[in-house]
Structure formats: structure tokens, C-alpha cells
TrEMBL record:
GO terms for biological process: defense response; response to other organism. It comes from the Eukaryota. Pfam families: Lectin_legB, PK_Tyr_Ser-Thr. In the N-terminal section; belongs to the leguminous lectin family. The keyword rRNA processing does not apply. It is found in: Cell membrane. It is an enzyme of class 2 (transferase). Residues 307-595 form the Protein kinase domain. This is non-specific serine/threonine protein kinase. It is a single-pass type I membrane protein. GO terms for molecular function: ATP binding; carbohydrate binding; protein serine/threonine kinase activity. Its EC number is 2.7.11.1.
Length: 660
């Protein structure tokens, strides 16, 4: 991992030095602080300093007392937030992994840390130790003015009543004051709070139209959320510093940043370019800071042995995928060569202006996607001979090969982790990015497994953007898909949505638990996995659908039942009745939430041993109400908690899950 990331960091730095002064395109970066050179992008002040594997925001040595310690670390370059000339406002998303470590001898820890946006260049504020978190002078009652203006997300691990803290352990949004505009308790999951000493991951997203600043904090499998409406234009200058601040008072703790990524939509004006070469250069600048690079066609020809048949890994809807071996000079490691295995996807041989524009738009979007459960885009090739994408080669191949292998069987714990990884990737695509991304073709052959059987969703050939605020697609091609995984409402209406991905997720969930494909043609008839499982559910025998190789462990069967029921819920025929990915993930992970009660008779009568339907009736739904149903898609409303995003009438009785 080291040499590859070192090379990526080097490419990122060199391209930044060449193109940064123009800032023609939006800034974006992805830094892992265990990589050599990553901390060179960061400026430190006060007690903050880099180590070989992380950023330390406060002192951590015994040579000097670590109480009353204050430190800041920020990105070394200005980040455009809004433009007075054009009136544009940025949307952005940033994700960072971090750790707060409590002193073992103390029941309480230091005051905490914060992610902030403020004046550039940043600086440590005098008398800002303790509860001020290094953000504003203590006591920080007054609003920040001039260069002290700041907007921050605080991870507060000490109760300061004078700042109206809600408790000793919370996340808050601060606008020119340490008194939070909004906050949420982070102690509701036992052993999973800010001071549990485990690595946490936070995602902060801002949407320019809604002015919504939203925070998702993941501690293990516990998700905490808080959001507030903040007009950043009113509170911050056009260009800002972004970074981290932390402080100790009398009590102490360690505050560490392990990785950090950032991407923004704001594009400042640049000279108009008209030639194809200029367009290609613009594409390179647009994704340079994210890591992917432009490859020469001849290099990819050599890497794949001229796209040899023996190097072919498979074929997607838009072309073949080939194994390749790239040899690159990695100057960051003393001139040694970096041999990298890659997957090269040949998209098209077309070179129309419209096709090229769509290709460039997709590359820019995919290059900003950074998530542990997404296959990483390494680069692209824009040539008259074809349009190609270069991805990391995920070692264990696609999920379908493992599900249907005669030689080995994925265990339930392995399948469960694959499900959670896929759900995490989808939640990121739908909710955590600057723009919502609909994948459009979720199926086992597009889910890769690494050496530890962690899942990585790939193949974004059908992916399209949706604006978070308007719900409108930003690209024009219709989402196609694969039979058996396609949302029936999309087939009928042609309307695309995140709910279409949720439907496909539900089908894949059933497939993983059952070990059966969604559709099988036999003797002119069609086996429908969804119908079959729903028939078993209606008879109270849903566990009979589980892969027989997995049965026998009671604890596993309890979780498999949850997987099957949530799979049915996600694959509900009507979009309005489906959960969001976040809701589905909650039920898949929670031992307390009561499973939704779904309609007993969703489809026409299904034989107990086999679900069969004619080829025109794959998506046929009951025409009228059945016993036990209200209307055609609901049952016994009871004490129902409904999501703000969905009108779902599937029962969520007694669920503790909040509306989303």
C-alpha cells in the first residue's frame, strides 16, 4: 500500500504546484497521514505536530505537561468558499478519521477538538485553552469578528455549563461562538462515544442551496447526526482556511487526525478554452487534486498486452474490462519502480463532442468519490482510439464468483460484512457527497472483494448525478441496469431515483442470504427470488429461504432473518414504501429495533416450493387488497414511526430509529 499511495501523493503535489495559482477548478484532496509527505500539505501552530502516522493536535509527551495544551492544523492553501464576483457559493464535503484518547488515570478527559472554517492564514488564538477548544478566546461568549470569525463542528468531551453544553460527550455546530447552534448526544450507544479511544469517522457536508451544514459521526457501527442551517456567506470570507483545532484544560486527552479528504463544487472563473487538447487539460486539472491521472493510450495497451483475451476479466454494458500491470517511476521512494495491478475498462471507441463531455463529467465526479467500500479510480485515458478508465484491481474478484463457487462457501459473518460494506457505500453515494450519485447497476458482479472479503462497489458506467436540493439529474443518459435488479417503477416510468438503488440493494441482499440468483429461466418459466421469498414470508417460514449451507447456528439465523426481511422491504414494488439506505442499515445492525411488518400477500399466489411467473409478469403486483392488507401495500398501521423521507406504511412499530 505504501508505494502506491506515495506515488499518488507525489502526483497530487506536482500537479498542484503546476496548476494551483489559477484555481480554475474546485479544490479536492485525499490525505492519509501514514503516507510519507502527506503532512507536508498541512500547516501547524501551537502544540500541534505531525508524526509518522497521524497529526497530533495537542501535546502527547511527558517532557512537558499536556494540560492547558492548544494546537491547530490546517490545509496549507486557501479554499474558495464563495465568489463575490459571480455570486456562487460552494457546496463541499469532507471526511476525516480521528481519535480522542482519554488518560487512563482519569474519569474525565480533556475538552475536545473541532473541525473549523475560518480566516486564512489560521493561527492559534490566545487564551483559548480548555472549553474554547482553541477556537475563540476564553470565555468565548461573544461572536467572532473580523479575522476571528469561525464556523466549526465541535467534538466536545467535557461538560462546560457556561457554554450551555448538553452533556459531557456531544457533537455540536458552532457559528462564531462556542455555544452550539445545534448539538447531539454521543452517549446513546454503550461503549461507542467520543472518549471510547476507538478510531472515529466524521463526514461534514454543506449544500449551497439549502445552506444545510450536516454532520455524520460514525463510531464503530454507531451513527450520530446533527445539522443546522448556516449561511456561510454571512459568517466567513470568500476564501477560508479549513482544518482542526483542539485544547486541553486542567484535564487532558490526546487528539489525533489519521486521514482527511475534502472536495468542493465551487469553480472560479478561468480563460475559455475551445480545443480538444484544452478540454483534456481542463479535465486533468479538474481531477488532479483528487489523485487520478491521465494515462497515455499506448501505456494502457502495453499494460494489458494489447488488450489480450487472456487478460480479460469480464465485460460490462459499456465494454470489456482487462487486467493490466502498470510500471511507473515513483520518485517519492528514491526512484524505485512501482508495479501496480489495475483493471482497465474500455468504455467506447466513440469520440463525439457530446460523448466526450459526458465522459469528462463522469470522470470528474468519480474522482471525487472517496470511500473504503468503493473501488478506487486511479486514472483515465481520453484518446481518439477510445475512452478508458483505470481502477484499482481488487484481488479476490467479484461477489458472484464467490456466492456460486462449488469449491468454497462464504460464511455468514463474511456475507454480513459484505452487506454492511455495500450499504455503507450506497449511503455515501446518496447522502454524503457534494452531489447525490445514483449508481444504477448494483449487482454481485459489480461488487468486488478484497483479500479480507471487504466489499468494494465498482462499475460506475451507469452512475448519474442528482442535485441534493432540486432532485434533478445533472446528466442525460438513461439509467439502464440488469434484469432482476431493475426497479419496476423505473421500467414503467423511466424516472430515476435513489430508491432505484435501494431496490437493487434489496435484491442483492436477498441473493447474498439465499445464495440464489434473482431470476432463473427453466423450461420456459421464470423463477423469481423476490416472489419466492415473499411467499415464504407470508407463511411465517422466511428462514427457509436462507442458503442451507449457512443454517445451524441460531445466532446467525436471527441475523439472516433480519437480512431477508429488510431485503424484501428495500425491494418493495412501490418507491414510496422503501426505506432509505440509512434506515435499512439501522435495522440490519440493531438488535433492538423491531423488524417492519410487511404485507403478507404482495404478489399473486406463489407455490411453496417455487416462485414462477410468465415472462411478462415478472413485476406483476396484486391488483387489489388481500386479507391482512390495507389497500394493496400495507398492513395494521399500529404505532407507526414514519420517515420524513418516505411515506412508508411498512410497520416500524416500537422502533427507536429516528426520522431521517
Amino acid at each position: 500500500m505504501g508505494s502506491r499511495n506515495r506515488h499518488t501523493t507525489l502526483v497530487l503535489v506536482l500537479l498542484y504546484l503546476v496548476y494551483a495559482p489559477r484555481w480554475a477548478l474546485s479544490p479536492s484532496f485525499n490525505l492519509n497521514f501514514s503516507d510519507p509527505g502527506a503532512s507536508s500539505w498541512i500547516t501547524f501552530a501551537g502544540d500541534a505536530f505531525p508524526t509518522a502516522s497521524m497529526l497530533e493536535l495537542t501535546r502527547n509527551t511527558h517532557e512537558r505537561a499536556i494540560n492547558e495544551s492548544v494546537g491547530r492544523a490546517w490545509y496549507s492553501y486557501k479554499v474558495p468558499l464563495w465568489s463575490n464576483a459571480t455570486g456562487e457559493m460552494a457546496s463541499f464535503t469532507t471526511t476525516f478519521s480521528f481519535q480522542i484518547i482519554q488518560a487512563q488515570s482519569l474519569e474525565l478527559t480533556g475538552d475536545g477538538m473541532a473541525f473549523f472554517l475560518g480566516h486564512f492564514p489560521s493561527a492559534v488564538v490566545p487564551e483559548s485553552q480548555g472549553g474554547s477548544l482553541g477556537l475563540l478566546p476564553d470565555p468565548a461568549f461573544a461572536n467572532g469578528i473580523d479575522d476571528s470569525r469561525i464556523v466549526a463542528v465541535e467534538f466536545d468531551s467535557f461538560l462546560n455549563a457556561i457554554y450551555d453544553d448538553i452533556n459531557v460527550n456531544h457533537v455540536g455546530i458552532d457559528v462564531n461562538s462556542i455555544k452550539s447552534t445545534a448539538s447531539t448526544d454521543t452517549t446513546t450507544w454503550p461503549g461507542k462515544n467520543l472518549t471510547s479511544s476507538i478510531v472515529m469517522e466524521a463526514t461534514v457536508t454543506y449544500h449551497n442551496e439549502s445552506k444545510m451544514l450536516a454532520v455524520d459521526l460514525l463510531i464503530g457501527d454507531a451513527l450520530y447526526q446533527v445539522n443546522a442551517i448556516v449561511d456561510l456567506r454571512r459568517h466567513l470570507p470568500e476564501q477560508v482556511a479549513i482544518g482542526f483545532s483542539a485544547a486541553n484544560g486542567v484535564l487532558v486527552g490526546l487528539h489525533r487526525i489519521l486521514s482527511w479528504s475534502f472536495s468542493s463544487t465551487l469553480e472560479l472563473s478561468s480563460p475559455l478554452q475551445t480545443s480538444k487538447n484544452a478540454d483534456r487539460d481542463g479535465l486533468e486539472r479538474g481531477v488532479a487534486a483528487s489523485g487520478p491521472k491521465r494515462y497515455k493510450y499506448r501505456d494502457l495497451v502495453a499494460a494489458t498486452s494489447n488488450f489480450a483475451e487472456e487478460e480479460k476479466l469480464g465485460r460490462g454494458g459499456f465494454g470489456g474490462v482487462y487486467r493490466g500491470h502498470l510500471t511507473q517511476l515513483a520518485a517519492a521512494v528514491g526512484g524505485q519502480q512501482d508495479h501496480r495491478a489495475v483493471a482497465v475498462k474500455v468504455l467506447s471507441t466513440e469520440s463525439s463532442e457530446q460523448g466526450r463531455r459526458e465522459f469528462e463529467a463522469e470522470v470528474k465526479v468519480i474522482s471525487m468519490l472517496k470511500h473504503r467500500n468503493l473501488a478506487q479510480l486511479l486514472g483515465w485515458c481520453d484518446s481518439r482510439k477510445g475512452l478508458l478508465l483505470v481502477y484499482e484491481l481488487v484481488t479476490e474478484g467479484s461477489l458472484d464468483k464467490h456466492l456460486y463457487s462449488k469449491d468454497k462457501c462464504l460464511t455468514w459473518p463474511q456475507r454480513y460484512e459484505i452487506i454492511l460494506g455495500l450499504g455503507s457505500a450506497l449511503h455515501y453515494l446518496h447522502r454524503e457527497g457534494v452531489q447525490c450519485v445514483v449508481h444504477g447497476d448494483i449487482k454481485p458482479s459489480n461488487i468486488m472483494l478484497d483479500s479480507s472479503h471487504s466489499s468494494k462497489l465498482g462499475d460506475f458506467g451507469l452512475a448519474r448525478l442528482i442535485d441534493h436540493d432540486t432532485g434533478l439529474f445533472q446528466t442525460t443518459k438513461a439509467v439502464q441496469g440488469t434484469v432482476g435488479y431493475i426497479d419496476p417503477e423505473f421500467v414503467n416510468t423511466g424516472r430515476r431515483s435513489t430508491e432505484s438503488d435501494v431496490y437493487s440493494f434489496g435484491v442483492v441482499l436477498l441473493e447474498i442470504v439465499c445464495g440464489r440468483p434473482p431470476v432463473v429461466e427453466t423450461a420456459g418459466k421464470t423463477f423469481s427470488l423476490l416472489r419466492w421469498v415473499w411467499g415464504l414470508y407470508s407463511r411465517g417460514a422466511i428462514l427457509d429461504a436462507a442458503d442451507p449451507r449457512l443454517k445451524g447456528v441460531e445466532a446467525n439465523e436471527w441475523w439472516m432473518e433480519r437480512g431477508l426481511v429488510i431485503g424484501l422491504w428495500c425491494a418493495f414494488p412501490y418507491r414510496s414504501e422503501r426505506p432509505s439506505v440509512m434506515q435499512a442499515m439501522h435495522f440490519l445492525q440493531s438488535e433492538e429495533a423491531t423488524l417492519p411488518e410487511l404485507p403478507q400477500h404482495m404478489y399473486r399466489a406463489v407455490r411453496p416450493d417455487l416462485a414462477l411467473c410468465n415472462r411478462q409478469g415478472d413485476y406483476s403486483i396484486d391488483d387489489g387488497p388481500r386479507p391482512g392488507c390495507v389497500g394493496s401495500s400495507s398492513a395494521n398501521i399500529g404505532n407507526t414511526i414514519l420517515s420524513a423521507e418516505s411515506s412508508s406504511t411498512a410497520l416500524l412499530r416500537h422502533s427507536k430509529f429516528p426520522t431521517v
